[in-house]
C-alpha cells in the first residue's frame, strides 16, 4: 500500500481529510503484533553506537579515498568540504546492513554505500542553495555556497551526483554485472523525476500553500524516502538477494523512509539549531506544511511509531541476531534526536 502511495501522483493543493489518510496508515499498526514488538525489545544485546561508529569510520575512509583530490582545487575542495563534514551516515549504513543481512560480502557494497552518501550530500548542498531552502548552516558548519559561492556549490553537487554513478560502475568488484546494472537503475530512478527531484519540486511549489496529507506524503516519499529505499534495495541487490527478499526490504525501507521525514518534521519544532546542526524551526519560518502542522505532535509521533513497527515486521523471516542491525537502524530513525 505504501508502494501505491509512493507511485501515485497527488492532486496538488487538494486537501485530503485526515480520517482517509489515517485509514491508509491504519493497517500499519495492525500488522505488527504485540509479540513482534516484544521480540524486538527483547532482541539480543546489540551495541548500536559501536556499530554505527564502526560503519561511519569504514565509510569515511572509503569516501576520502574515492573522492577526487586534484585540479581544479576549488571544485574538489567544495565536494570534500560537504561530504567529509560528518553526518550520521544512515544511508550507507543501511546499504551495508542490507547486503550483510542477505548474506552478501559487505566489502562489495562499499562503493554503493559511498555513492548513497555522495548523492545524499549533493541533495543537501542543492537544498541549502538560496534558490531552494536558502540555509546558512548544515552539519554544524556554514553551508557549501556560503564558503564556495553558489556557482561552485551547484557544480560540486553536479560532480558528486555523476561521480556517484561512476564510482559504482567502476569500483564495484565481485558482483555480477546485471546486479550492478539494477543498482544503477534503482539509484537513477530514486533521484530523478520520480524521486528526489520530484519531491523537491512539489515541496518548493507547495510552500505557503494549503497542502493536505496526501500531497505531504508524496513530498516525503519522494524527497526523503526514495533515497533510503534505494540505499536498502541496492545493498540487497549487491548482496545477491532474490526478488521476493528485495521487495520485502523495499517495504521496510519505504516505512523507515517516511518515518525519517516525519521525525525530521518533529525535530524541526522540538530541537535547537545546535542539536540539529542545521537551522531549527525553519519549516515554521517559511510556513511549510509538516506532519506536526497537519496532525499535531502526538499524532505525528504515533504515525512514526506505526511506520517503524511496520518496517520491522518486514524482517520477520530473519533470525534475531542476523537482523539486529536493521532493527536497530529502524529504531534509531524513529527515535533519533538530530
Ligand atoms: C539528487 C538529482 C538530485 C536532486 C536533488 C535538492 C533536492 C533535489 C532534494 C532535496 C532532498 C532533501 C535535502 C531531503 C531532506 C532529507 C533529509 C531529512 C535530510 C537530512 O538527512 P540526515 O538527517 O542528515 O541523515 P545527515 O547530515 O546526518 O546526513
TrEMBL record:
- State the organism of origin: Haematococcus lacustris (Green alga)
Which key words are in the record?
A: Isoprene biosynthesis, Magnesium, Metal-binding, Transferase
- Does the entry feature the keyword Magnesium, yes or no? yes
One GO biological-process annotation of the entry reads: isoprenoid biosynthetic process
**Assigned GO CC terms:** cytoplasm
Q: Which PROSITE patterns match?
A: POLYPRENYL_SYNTHASE_1 (PS00723), POLYPRENYL_SYNTHASE_2 (PS00444)
Q: What is this protein called?
A: Geranylgeranyl pyrophosphate synthase GGPPS1-2
List the Gene Ontology MF annotations in alphabetical order: metal ion binding; prenyltransferase activity
Its family remark reads: Belongs to the FPP/GGPP synthase family.
Cofactor(s) recorded for this entry are:
Mg(2+)
Q: Which PANTHER family match?
A: FARNESYL DIPHOSPHATE SYNTHASE
Disordered: annotated span: 1-21
Give a single Pfam family match: polyprenyl_synt
Q: In which pathway does it act?
A: Isoprenoid biosynthesis
Amino acid at each position: 500500500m505504501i508502494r501505491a502511495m509512493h507511485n501515485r501522483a497527488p492532486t496538488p493543493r487538494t486537501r485530503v481529510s485526515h480520517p482517509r489518510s489515517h485509514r491508509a496508515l491504519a493497517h500499519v499498526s495492525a500488522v505488527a503484533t504485540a509479540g513482534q514488538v516484544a521480540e524486538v525489545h527483547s532482541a539480543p544485546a546489540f551495541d548500536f553506537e559501536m556499530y554505527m561508529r564502526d560503519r561511519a569510520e569504514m565509510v569515511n575512509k572509503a569516501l576520502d579515498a574515492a573522492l577526487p583530490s586534484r585540479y581544479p582545487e576549488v571544485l574538489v575542495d567544495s565536494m570534500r568540504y560537504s561530504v567529509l563534514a560528518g553526518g550520521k551516515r544512515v544511508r550507507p549504513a543501511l546499504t551495508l546492513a542490507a547486503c550483510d543481512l542477505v548474506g552478501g560480502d559487505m566489502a562489495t557494497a562499499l562503493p554503493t554505500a559511498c555513492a548513497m552518501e555522495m548523492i545524499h550530500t549533493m541533495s543537501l548542498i542543492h537544498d541549502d542553495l538560496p534558490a531552494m531552502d536558502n540555509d546558512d548552516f548544515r552539519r554544524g558548519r556554514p553551508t557549501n555556497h556560503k564558503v564556495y559561492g553558489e556557482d561552485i556549490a551547484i557544480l560540486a553537487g553536479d560532480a558528486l551526483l555523476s561521480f556517484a554513478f561512476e564510482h559504482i560502475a567502476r569500483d564495484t568488484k565481485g558482483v555480477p554485472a546485471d546486479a550492478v546494472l539494477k543498482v544503477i537503475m534503482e539509484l537513477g530512478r530514486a533521484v530523478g523525476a520520480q524521486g528526489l527531484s520530484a519531491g523537491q519540486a512539489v515541496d518548493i511549489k507547495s510552500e505557503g500553500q494549503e497542502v493536505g496529507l496526501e500531497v505531504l506524503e508524496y513530498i516525503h516519499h519522494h524527497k526523503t524516502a526514495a533515497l533510503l529505499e534505494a540505499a536498502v534495495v541496492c545493498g540487497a541487490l549487491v548482496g545477491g538477494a532474490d526478488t521476493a527478499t528485495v521487495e520485502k526490504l523495499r517495504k521496510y525501507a519505504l516505512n523507515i523512509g517516511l518515518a525519517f521525514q516525519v521525525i525530521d518534521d518533529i525535530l524541526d519544532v522540538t530541537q535547537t539549531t545546535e542539536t540539529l546542526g542545521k537551522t531549527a524551526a525553519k519549516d515554521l519560518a517559511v510556513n511549510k506544511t509538516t506532519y506536526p502542522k497537519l496532525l499535531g505532535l502526538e499524532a505525528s509521533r504515533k504515525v512514526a511509531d506505526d511506520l517503524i513497527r511496520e518496517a520491522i515486521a518486514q524482517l520477520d523471516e530473519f533470525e534475531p541476531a542476523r537482523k539486529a542491525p536493521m532493527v536497530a537502524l529502524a529504531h534509531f530513525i524513529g527515535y533519533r534526536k538530530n
